[in-house]
Write a structure and sequence with these properties.
The protein is of the alpha+beta class. The chain has nine helices and 25 strands. Strands 11, 12, 13, 14, 15 and 19 form a six-stranded mixed sheet that branches. Strands 20-21-23-24-25-22 form a six-stranded antiparallel sheet, with helices on one face. A hairpin with a 7-residue loop joins strand 23 and strand 24.
Length: 461
Amino acid sequence: MQKQKTLKGEFAVEGKGLHTGQFIHARFLPAPENHGYKIQRIDIEGQPVIDCIAENVGDTQRGTVLSKGDVKVSTIEHSMAALYAMGVDNCLIQLDGPEMPILDGSAAIFVEQIQKVGVQEQAANREYFIVKHKIEIKGERGEHIILVPDDDFCVNIMIEFNSRILASQFATLNSLSDFPQEISSARTFVFVREIEPLLDLGLIKGGDLDNAIVIYENELSQERYDALADKIGIPHKDAKQLGYINNKPLTWPNETARHKLLDIIGDLALVGRRIKGRLIATKPGHSINNKFARLLRKDIRKHEVQCPPYDPDKEPVLDVNKIRTMLPHRYPMQLVDKIISIDENCIVGVKNVTINEPFFTGHFPDEPVMPGVLLIEAMAQAGGLLVLNSLEEPEKWSTYFMKIDNVKFRKKVVPGDTLIFKVRLLAPVKHGISSMRGLMFVGDTLVGEAEFTAQIVKNKE
């Protein structure tokens, strides 16, 4: 189980906003466990705080805009991508303006600052969204995003524009560890044909050749080109020379595709959990990205708890023989076959249910069903192993039920099922008393749950 992380210290960046042109300061501060990403507008009375989640995105026209009531924060995707890719789970961002500074148009400066202050581990475990099946969404203009199972978070991007300069491009990120070198420096881009409409909408007031790649593909008259150049404050040039207009040359031939990959990471950071899956996106953009992030959050709410991954080929942390040295239970009451994961706060155990269980002889013999009380007992045994594992001589101690609460049975368990138990401490063990919450799964289905309190008692010599 990986731990949540936050910044070791705070850092600040400053610069003009891409759309407002306003000079803005942004401070990135460490945050406590389970805080997530939040943005605070300190230039407004009451200092409103906005949770950085997909449902709070109010506009995606030329960037990702968070809103809470009348308060908005624009162009957050580059900073979100940097935090997510660098492993930061909890961070408070304070801004004195309506958007994040555009800086150089990429995520590189955010990444550099995170590397400079460092990242520190926290006590709480990370919650992952583990992709178990294909999830996809399609847009009306050929946009298509698919998320499929994978052991890590990987991204494949294909972009396509009706352009002589920028046609089809591909970009791939196989590991977030490659983000600083391979993706973070990719700059945002705009077509010359888009500039006047955007200016008419009151946008890109802070755009220039230092913070965006400008793509000139359709020849303008020299007079019109010069007028547009004056409007956006760039030098005059020969209007017949098509191509990229930048003060800094392209870092990679496919820099635009890499920037789209950067954007989708920033937009999916608003899912609120780290993702384990491979993302394949065709013609992504902020609008379809946000719709997909909302779809993932809906899936998380629908399946609020996920079954821990179980690979039967891996060696268990505790096998049946080791369990027998820690628990006093014997046949037919030893109900945990192996432990596949354990840390100081959480344990995952397995029970293979067979027709040879003695209770099936009398418990609905014509339609065998595992008794609910034994499901709770099996889960409690896993919880007992969690607590006993923290002791120096666990074989000298036993755990006993004191209370059981909030028991729910959602689906019957029958011969042939493989039960997976996930038991987590609700609070640190104090005065020999432990409180735990347990979940039971068959496959990806939650079949039962309960909260229970147990007392740790030393065995008589």
